[in-house]
Specification:
This protein folds into two domains: 3-311, Up-down Bundle (ABC transporter transmembrane region fold), CATH 1.20.1560; 328-410 and 478-566, P-loop containing nucleotide triphosphate hydrolases (Rossmann fold, 3-Layer(aba) Sandwich), CATH 3.40.50. It is elongated and about 115 Å long. The strands form two sheets. The chain has a six-stranded mixed β-sheet with strand order 6-7-8-3-9-10, with helices on both faces. A four-stranded antiparallel β-sheet has the order 2-1-4-5, with helices on one face. The chain has helices spanning 3-16, 18-35, 37-52, 55-104, 114-126, 130-136, 140-150, 152-199, 201-206, 210-262, 268-290, 292-311, 368-375, 398-401, 419-423, 431-440, 444-448, 467-479, 497-512, 547-574; strands at 328-336, 343-352, 357-361, 383-388, 391-392, 405-408, 485-489, 516-520, 532-537, 540-546. By secondary structure, it is of the alpha/beta class. The longest helix has 53 residues, at 210-262. Helix content is 64%, strand content 10%.
């Protein structure tokens, strides 16, 4: 799928909402036609009623005017409701897709909720009052044409007035765009830093980092305020100038009309009608300049959402393959972070058969967690492939593949819902599977002791649970649904001896069921049930083989290194 077709996803969604915008445009047509009632009323009153002295005519004209105003107000309300429904339709079609694309782009940095904020920004502008000025703007030439029909000189003055305000609008764009774009970029960094700070609030408080962190946070914040202030000052100056020009032009056209009346070229009614029509013609321009900051923000937000969707297209499920048996093949996997050339994983290769358990060990920074993410398709290799029963896991739709995988990340994250909802991966009607997974993870009895059992609300990120509880519930989530491959990254980091025992029993049950298990761990007790060991050093495989064989080889290597060290120590002591 090419970039252009991906970028068209936004156009497809907007096209689906086109009916709402067409209806709003038609209501705008009727509203603007009804706005002509006031100048027509004035023309008739000054040019006919006053000269004829007919009270019934005045009464009928007034009633007609009030009816027009009631219809105008009603149509304005209906137009607002249509646009509100357009916002709901747009949200229904696209909000979930934006969230899914945000999940797919994990690891790219930035505030995690920024794409959804961007979507809300342009959706609010697109379906709010800002669009009313856009709908009304095409009527400016029509109002100017009506003024021209009243008198060519008045029409020419109105045309020049509109041209001057249009130039002022372009000047406003030129002056305001750069500082606003800089402010928007900086505010995204500031939100990202704020989210990271709040996620690590415990560390910030415990280490007394709050004051220093706030100073660092304030640096970006002050930059945002500086750029926003610059944009606001410039926009205010232009907006004030436009307001001055509009009011002056409405008054000057009265003076011009009065001059023409004195010359006998037009009527008093035409003079006042021209002033009202000119104000209505120039009003959309003034409104758009007043909304310029919101419009620039919405335009930038639209671009970011469009690029996000283009870079993360919806996965193509393709042919639905049967449940994999669990045959895992890692083929010459290399991985470097996007935009860098330094390899985190280098030519990693190994194979596992269904029912085998692999332990991955190595020093910190060796790439163990990165490899674990590749095994479940969270990351895609720069070169090489990870295959489950021959299918590339990074190319399969994660909604389809995820049901056959179990994953316990190093940083356990639970959601603000019930224990059962977290274990079931938010699948409805899965009570039996939830209990089975909890029993397999050895956490069933612990859950029953909670206040409301499986229906216990665990709070934000599982705040009401201890670290060990969270890890064991996350283990139950990993083994839910009888997966073919289970990857556990440091699954015992928060467990006590009972938890270690339950974890090992869980691994044995998985192996007996033919599930392939991969465990990343530093703790020997956690690796007691694995069949094979892979030693990872600097992103490369240092050793791979049967558990006892690899551990014996490592023990001999450590012993050989220790002998020269001891000899040097003894020689130094003798000296």
């Amino acid at each position: 799928m090419g970039t252009n077709s991906r970028a068209g996803e936004m156009r497809v969604v907007l096209t689906a909402c086109r009916g709402y915008f067409v209806a709003a445009a038609l209501f705008s047509l009727a509203i603007n036609l009804l706005y002509l009632a006031a100048p027509i009323y004035m023309l008739q009153v000054y040019d006919r009623v006053i000269s004829s002295g007919s009270v019934p005519t005045l009464a009928m004209l007034t009633v007609a005017l009030l009816i027009a105003f009631v219809a105008l107000a009603g149509l304005d309300v209906v137009r607002s409701r249509v646009m509100a429904r357009a916002g709901i339709r747009l949200d229904t079609l696209l909000a979930g897709r934006v969230v899914a694309a945000s999940v797919a782009r994990m690891g790219e940095g930035g505030a995690r909720s920024q794409p959804l904020r961007d979507f809300d920004t342009f959706r609010t502008y697109l379906t709010g009052n800002g669009m009313n000025a856009v709908f009304d703007l095409p009527w400016a030439p029509i109002y100017i044409g009506v003024i021209y029909l009243l008198h060519p000189a008045l029409g020419l003055f109105a045309l020049v007035s509109a041209a001057v305000l249009a130039v002022m609008a372009f000047v406003n764009e030129w002056l305001v765009r750069t500082p606003l774009e800089e402010a928007n970029e900086t505010v995204q960094r500031n939100y990202s830093f704020t989210e990271a700070s709040l996620r690590n609030a415990e560390v910030v408080k415990a280490l007394g980092m709050a004051d220093a962190l706030i100073r660092r946070w304030s640096r970006d914040r002050n930059r945002v305020l500086d750029r926003q202030t610059a944009a606001s000052d410039r926009a205010s100056a232009i907006s004030g100038a436009i307001r001055f020009l509009r009011m002056s032009m409405q008054s000057v056209i009265l003076g011009l009309g009065a001059y023409l009346v004195l010359q006998g070229s037009t009527t008093v009614g035409a003079m006042f009608a021209a002033s009202i029509l000119l104000g209505r013609a120039l009003q959309p321009v003034e409104l758009m300049v007043g909304q310029w900051r919101a419009m620039v923000g919405a335009r930038a937000a639209y671009g970011r959402v469009r690029n996000l969707l283009a870079a993360n297209p919806p996965p193509d499920p393709g042919i639905v393959l049967p449940r994999p048996a669990g045959r895992l093949s890692v083929e010459a996997v290399n991985y470097a972070l996007p935009g860098t050339s330094k390899l985190i994983l280098r030519e990693v290769s190994f194979r596992l058969e269904p029912g085998e358990a692999l332990g991955i060990i190595g020093p910190s920074g060796a790439g163990k967690s990165t490899l674990a993410r590749h095994l479940v398709g969270v990351l895609a290799p720069t070169t090489g492939a990870v295959r489950l029963d021959g299918a590339d896991v990074s190319r399969r739709a994660y909604e389809v593949l995820g049901g056959h995988l179990g994953y316990l990340p190093q940083d356990v994250e639970l959601f603000a819902d019930t224990v059962a909802a977290n274990i079931s991966r938010f699948q409805a009607g899965a009570d039996a599977g939830v209990v089975q997974a909890a029993q397999r993870a050895g956490v069933h009895d612990m859950i029953l002791r909670l206040a409301d059992g499986y229906d216990t609300e665990i709070g934000e990120a599982g705040a009401v649970l201890s670290g060990g509880y969270r890890q064991r519930i996350a283990l139950a989530r990993a083994v839910f649904g009888n997966p073919s491959l289970v990857v556990l990254d440091e699954p015992s980091s928060n467990l006590d001896s009972d938890g270690d025992t339950a974890l090992n029993e869980c691994v044995l049950q998985l192996k007996a069921a033919g599930v392939t298990v991969v465990i990343v761990s530093h703790r020997p007790a956690t690796l007691a049930t694995v069949d094979r060991i892979l030693v990872l050093t600097d992103g490369a495989v240092q050793a791979f083989g049967e558990r006892n064989e690899v551990l014996a080889r490592l023990t001999r290597s450590v012993a050989v290194k220790a002998v020269p060290d001891a000899s040097r120590g003894a020689a130094a002591a003798g000296a």
